[in-house]
């Protein structure tokens, strides 16, 4: 090999070594930069800082527990309101809130007729209280009180019997004898034996105002 060719070969090898060194240096610098960026992202809280959109999305998430409590509170309020409406409706005789026993025009007629008259049975509770007091009085008064209470009960039963007979005729005339709803006698007697302020539904007519 001539001296000129040796010189050219040496220069080519030196140039190749120089390029390889530069490439390795660039790769090392790039790796160092990436490592620095990764380190910077994890400095502080140990996780990348969220972007503005991520922060807004996190803040916009609904609070499930709070919504559930609000919904339950609203449901309880509605249920209480419904119960109150039902109670008032039953007291006023609204057909929508009455039990099956109290529904219908015949049952309303029976209630109105009973409420329009003085019933001996409705005074039974006050009379029993009086007799209870009299039983503490020694002597003849105890015997008299027992006779009085049993006589009063007999009169109340007799009054309820005549009430049922009268209602049978009135219901037959108004609704037809073959359409009279069964059980009206017992229904009328139970209402007649109740103290007027305790009746349910509440009386809708005054005494003396017979239903038409």
From TrEMBL:
Signal peptide: none annotated. InterPro entries: DUF3043 (IPR021403). Keywords: Membrane, Transmembrane, Transmembrane helix. Pfam families: DUF3043 (PF11241). Residues 1-86 are annotated as: Disordered. It comes from the Bacteria. This is DUF3043 family protein.
């Amino acid at each position: 090999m001539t001296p000129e060719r040796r010189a050219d070969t040496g220069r080519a090898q030196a140039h190749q070594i120089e390029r390889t060194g530069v490439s390795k240096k660039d790769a090392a610098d790039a790796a160092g930069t990436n490592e620095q960026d990764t380190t910077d992202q994890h400095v502080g809280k140990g996780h990348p800082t969220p972007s503005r959109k991520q922060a807004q999305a996190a803040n916009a998430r609904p609070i499930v527990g709070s919504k559930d409590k609000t919904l339950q509170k609203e449901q309880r309020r509605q249920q209480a309101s419904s119960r109150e409406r039902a109670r008032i409706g039953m007291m006023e005789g609204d057909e929508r809130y009455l039990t099956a026993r109290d529904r219908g025009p015949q049952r309303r007629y029976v209630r109105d007729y009973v409420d329009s008259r003085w019933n001996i049975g409705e005074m039974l509770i006050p009379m029993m209280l009086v007799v209870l007091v009299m039983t503490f009085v020694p002597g003849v008064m105890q015997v008299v009180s027992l006779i009085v209470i049993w006589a009063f009960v007999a009169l109340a039963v007799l009054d309820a019997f005549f009430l049922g007979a009268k209602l049978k005729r009135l219901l037959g005339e108004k609704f037809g004898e073959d359409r009279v709803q069964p059980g009206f006698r017992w229904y009328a007697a139970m209402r007649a034996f109740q103290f007027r302020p305790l009746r349910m539904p509440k009386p809708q007519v005054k005494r003396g105002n017979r239903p038409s």
